[in-house]
Design a protein that fits this description.
Distance between the termini: 60 Å
Helix content: 10-25%
Radius of gyration: 18 Å
Structural class: alpha+beta
Low-confidence stretches: 3-23
Largest sheet: 8 strands, antiparallel
Strand order of the largest sheet: 6-5-4-3-2-1-8-7
Length: 136
């Protein structure tokens, strides 16, 4: 009885760890989405009185880097079929200091170079984005 409990507990932990260690390939997005995201640049035009562009680079490890002072992280949350793609970028020397967003991951299936869209960060700031081929 005790051996059965220990073995089932260990198996339960292993299964739980696999379910929480989500990779990009286990999400609602098509594989081409991730290939494009990790090899392209997402250029945001931040719509504030003195608007500016910031080029963001999403990496496979959940980190964000930019051509300006912004850095941050991205993650996927939620259940299969209703997953959200979220990210947070921050700067210690540029305003706005924090920009974040979550949106349904399924909306971003099969993005293409040149795709453009408007949006709002959670902080109420509008942006326009475009997928630009390559990275510096």
């Amino acid at each position: 009885m005790r051996k059965t409990f220990i073995i089932s507990s260990i198996l339960g932990l292993i299964i739980a760890s696999f379910s929480f260690s989500q990779t990009a390939e286990e999400t609602d997005a098509e594989p081409g989405y991730w290939t494009n995201l990790f090899n392209a640049t997402i250029r945001y035009t931040i719509q504030i009185p003195e608007q500016f562009d910031v080029d963001m680079y999403f990496d496979r490890g959940g980190q964000l880097k930019s051509d300006l002072e912004y850095k941050g992280s991205w993650w996927v949350e939620g259940d299969e079929g209703a997953q959200m793609f979220c990210y947070l970028m921050t700067s210690t020397i540029r305003e706005p200091a924090k920009l974040s967003e979550c949106f349904p991951l399924v909306l971003m299936n099969n993005p293409r170079i040149g795709a453009q869209w408007p949006g709002f960060f959670k902080e109420g700031i509008m942006y326009e984005a475009i997928v630009v081929e390559g990275r510096p």
